């Protein structure tokens, strides 16, 4: 039995004993079926589960004011432990890929759990998306979650204390604040992994969504989707979203980078100055009129065009086919621990990791 503090009262949650094969046999890796719903004064709603810190649903208005759920997922929290592990999830300790699951810190080589070919992806099979986060506090429009990742978990050094706060603001923003500390030098790259379809989850593909990414360069990858270390200009390529462009316009071009990713699954180097929030991307869905802006303090943005969705059954029995959702994951660059020319993801003992991302919703 877990007991969480909610406002002025206590809520006791009975946790299911069911575990995935990759889970460690401890309470922090035990799924439960608790959900929390956040609302703002305009009627927006976000429902979450502490299991993986996952957003189950996100209801935002179209141009007629009608609310629609715009994230892929499942009907109940109990389905998440056996479903797509990344739907709506908090990702850590390291979002995206690390080549061969290896890196070196202070002369010592660390070997991570391998779960993506020969590489490590999204913190490993027992990453933050597959753990039970502790509910620290809630308000009607916010929730703070925490997780202690033990030294050596999934191969990472240091006891890492992480706190993430989701807020649904009255400016129609889903704001995510990340903070972490460690007692040993380690690497950290936290992100969020909702699969968006601004027409509504399960409503066709996302190829007519218009995307703008404020970036002049991206990081090309090898066949394992590990960055080569180069920063390549987007101008004149299928990766040029400097102006609003339909996602499907060039997605099938004869480009080796698109073939490696089966579409877009790449990191863009954001045009930004200073350390505050900066606009990273804007997505518009023409039929509904929904617009989503992405603001972040991070240097990179991973755009994933849902290339590996394979017809799995989601909410209401809908089939989520290839390219029926997209992800915009704010981050440091993939494989940064092995690319000294990239912005560093090293976190030293006594230092505080912080970043913020805001998904802001409008209509036109």
List the helices and strands and how they pair.
Elements: E1 2-6, E2 9-13, E3 36-39, E4 45-49, E5 54-61, E6 67-69, E7 89-91, E8 97-98, E9 102-105, E10 108-111, E11 120-121, E12 134-139, E13 142-149, E14 160-168, E15 173-182, E16 186-187, E17 191-193, E18 210-213, E19 215-219, E20 232-233, E21 245-246, H1 256-261, E22 265-270, E23 278-284, E24 290-296, E25 300-304, E26 312-313, E27 319-320, E28 327-331, E29 346-347, E30 353-363
Antiparallel strand pairs: 1-2, 3-4, 4-5, 5-6, 7-17, 8-11, 9-10, 12-13, 13-14, 14-15, 15-30, 16-29, 18-21, 18-23, 19-20, 19-22, 22-25, 23-24, 24-30, 25-28, 26-27
3D structure, described in words:
The chain has one domain: Beta-galactosidase, Chain A, domain 5 (Distorted Sandwich), CATH 2.70.98. Mean pLDDT is 92; it is low at 1-27. By secondary structure, the chain is mostly beta strands. Strands 12-13-14-15-30-24-23-18-21 form a 9-stranded antiparallel sheet, with no helix packed on it. The longest helix is centred in the C-terminal third of the chain and has 6 residues, at 256-261. It is built from 1 helix and 30 strands. Strand 1 and strand 2 (9-13) form a beta hairpin.
Main attributes?
364 residues, Beta-galactosidase, Chain A, domain 5, nine-stranded antiparallel sheet, five-stranded antiparallel sheet, 1 helix, globular, disordered N terminus
């Amino acid at each position: 039995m877990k007991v969480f503090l909610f406002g002025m009262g206590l809520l006791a949650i009975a946790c299911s004993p069911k575990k995935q094969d990759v889970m460690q046999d401890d309470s922090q890796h035990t799924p439960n079926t608790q959900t929390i719903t956040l609302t703002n004064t305009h009627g927006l709603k976000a429902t979450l589960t502490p299991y993986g810190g996952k957003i189950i649903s996100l209801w935002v208005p179209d141009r007629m004011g009608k609310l629609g759920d715009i994230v892929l997922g499942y009907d109940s929290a109990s389905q998440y432990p056996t479903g797509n592990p990344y739907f709506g999830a908090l990702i850590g300790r390291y979002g995206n890929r690390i080549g061969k699951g290896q890196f070196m810190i202070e002369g010592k080589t660390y070997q991570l759990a391998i779960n993506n070919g020969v590489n490590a992806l999204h913190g490993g099979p027992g990453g933050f998306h597959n753990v039970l986060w502790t509910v620290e506090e809630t308000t009607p429009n916010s929730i703070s979650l925490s997780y202690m990742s033990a030294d050596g978990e999934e191969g990472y050094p240091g006891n890492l204390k992480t706190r993430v706060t989701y807020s649904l603001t009255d400016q129609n923003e889903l704001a995510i604040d990340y903070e972490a500390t460690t007692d040993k030098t380690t690497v950290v790259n936290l992100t969020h992994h909702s699969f968006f379809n601004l027409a509504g989850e399960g409503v066709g593909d996302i190829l007519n969504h218009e995307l703008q990414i404020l970036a002049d360069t991206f990081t090309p990858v090898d066949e394992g989707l590990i960055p080569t270390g180069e920063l390549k200009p987007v101008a004149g390529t299928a990766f040029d979203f400097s102006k609003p462009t339909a996602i499907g316009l060039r997605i099938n071009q004869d480009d080796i980078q698109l073939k490696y990713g089966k579409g877009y699954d790449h990191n863009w180097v954001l045009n930004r100055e200073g350390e505050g929030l900066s606009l990273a991307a804007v997505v518009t869905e023409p039929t509904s009129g929904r617009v989503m802006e992405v603001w972040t303090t991070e240097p990179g943005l991973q755009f994933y065009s849902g290339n590996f969705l394979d017809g799995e059954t989601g909410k209401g029995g809908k089939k989520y086919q290839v390219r029926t959702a997209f992800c915009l994951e704010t981050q440091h660059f993939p494989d940064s621990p092995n690319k000294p020319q990239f912005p560093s993801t090293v976190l030293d003992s006594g230092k505080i990791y912080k970043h913020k991302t805001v998904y802001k919703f409008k209509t036109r």
